[in-house]
Here is the input.
Amino acid sequence: MEKYVKKTVKAARRNSYQLSRLNQKVKNDILCRMADALLEHKIYILEENEKDVSAAKKARIKKSFIDRLTLTEDRIFQMSDSLRAIAALPDPLGRTLKGWTLANGLSLKKVAVPLGVIMIIYEARPNVTSDCLGLCFKTSNVAVLRGGKEALSSNKAVFKVLSRAAAKAGLTYAPFFLVDRTEHELVDKLLKENEYIDLVIPRGGENLIRKVTAASSIPVIKHYKGVCHIYVDQYADQIKALPICINAKCQRPAVCNAVETILVHEKIADRFLPVLKTALAKEKVMIKGDDRSRKIVKGLKKAYASDWSREYGDLTVNLKVVSSVDEAVAHINLYGSHHTDSIITDNINRAGQFSREVDSACCFVNISTRFSDGFQFGLGAEIGISTDKLHARGPMGLEELTTYKYIVEGDGQIRI
Amino acid sequence: MEKYVKKTVKAARRNSYQLSRLNQKVKNDILCRMADALLEHKIYILEENEKDVSAAKKARIKKSFIDRLTLTEDRIFQMSDSLRAIAALPDPLGRTLKGWTLANGLSLKKVAVPLGVIMIIYEARPNVTSDCLGLCFKTSNVAVLRGGKEALSSNKAVFKVLSRAAAKAGLTYAPFFLVDRTEHELVDKLLKENEYIDLVIPRGGENLIRKVTAASSIPVIKHYKGVCHIYVDQYADQIKALPICINAKCQRPAVCNAVETILVHEKIADRFLPVLKTALAKEKVMIKGDDRSRKIVKGLKKAYASDWSREYGDLTVNLKVVSSVDEAVAHINLYGSHHTDSIITDNINRAGQFSREVDSACCFVNISTRFSDGFQFGLGAEIGISTDKLHARGPMGLEELTTYKYIVEGDGQIRI
Here is the structure.
């Protein structure tokens, strides 16, 4: 196993140098060929996927998991489209981020370059395999993928089809790797290879992410969970506030940017809370409240201290009455997950204070928290969302898969 | 100890929210008052420093260490000046790094904000205390400082003077912290507080940095060592190449951006190596060579495999003859520390290839490696140098002490 790990990471590093020399046009052509190959070999991929799905069914794994695991013709079309969309995106490499010239004649440029080798650890979705390979390839990063073992046949099939397409297009080295051995300790060993792997991105549930982070000596970019808030301010337009709250909770409650707690200013709580409660109840949302909101709206369950930092991931929401923006901000910074929080207000000062003081990746004004997403931001892609503060924060697109170097030119200068 | 750690980091996080509300003008005024206070209390600081210095002398600690530990009136003037210089620098916070509007009316801004809490771990230089406090304060980050125990009296004195100046200027909370307890396990405990500390910057020798990195669950930005190269290409202007090599090795051999290995293209090795050898010998440099260079220049010591990745930190240098830029690049990427490497050439293609393919924070063309430094880059400050690829690479100034958040404004948009 030791040998397999070293062999893999050394090859990944070596190939990353080759990949970084490939120009964007060539890479985009290859991405399109990879997209074609997915369609061409869809029967094979579906057959291999069927093996995983029936094994999962036999093992009585829960339905939502099997849903994520299952590929259909339609999903393969989407995977193919998504590779083509990545090919069409602008090149994030080679951008001059900054440039200046000094009095002594030195000319400095800060230029965007690939990170090198990126390891992505994920769970059951086989479409993540092609998406991540595509995003890493586009940015000249060598991807080292490790998917859930329940999806191994599917991942191997997708990987094989894409690898062959790249080879057929003329690549003489592997531009991406799939860790297809399933020993558990393998991942822990890979996570110590900080000389060869530059970044780890875990995608999945909080447990997976905590395990990866604890075991890794390589930098990890992640978000543990999405405990998002909406604060309905005293100066909110309640006509707008209501659909925003409903949208943020109900449109897709299982995802990280759904709202978990709605904070309401005391000056409008008497009017707004009953309306909100009726609307939420109509959508079958289970509502928990603090003492103040339970006085205004009867029949709410009590929200306990631990509820304020829970990511429900379902149709449950907390309500709380607050006396000021300060109180709202303090609550969010204490209990939130620094992901996405939205204020509903028509008052520009309140909006400004909230945006400045809430310590989250995304501070929204008068919109649903559900917009926190790389595609919704117009980034054209998303490799993940970060609630970390180093390197990347919030939705991560292609630019977040680059680092920079300084290129400094002179004509013989020495330091005095 | 547990209690002390929690109390410190919680206060640091809390105060970071307060500090982030302070405007730049107020902060700059306070920085100037801090600069004044250092001068005003220089006798006190020198007295406290004298305690450390005489203890170190008694313990027969080596001279270079005592040099770094010793404060003089002149050094205190420099510390004061440096705070004033930080006050004069442009504000890196609040910059809109990017902004755009989407078809649905959402207006997005990516805005520079403080990181929050930064822990700095360093060794014997008491001037690091005031420099780091100044840089963190300017960027509204709460600094948690842990200096070497040999400098504790000096650090406490500097810290006390600066804290009092900040309090006198009206700050009602501590804008920075000094860890003044010396238990060894204390640092390890602090390094696990990833909820309260956002970034760790270790400054010092490779041993210290490796220990901090291994123990930390907080992101660390660092450079282990500086194994820097100069590659003298076939098309080098040898008149320029010679002083560059001498400057890079001899001007200050103990620092990380001094050169350790000079690679020379085979086409000019016969002419250049003897001249280089003479010039280096004149500066009392000890020269080690590979087999090819030892055939051209007699009397060189042999460079062993392990020498190629050593940071000498003194007047020792390796010479090696290479057959191509490819070979030079491969050598540098294999043995170097991804810090700073310079090509000497008049050929634009060679310069381009070197800059693109050398995987280092700083790729230089026709200049001494000694320019790799925040001040030399014109950043106006330097908190350290990073050979990491995440967040910051190369010399780190004020901008590298910031992160960003997305502020997204709309007027009632929900996701469909």
Q: What stands out?
A: The longest helix of chain A spans residues 2-19.
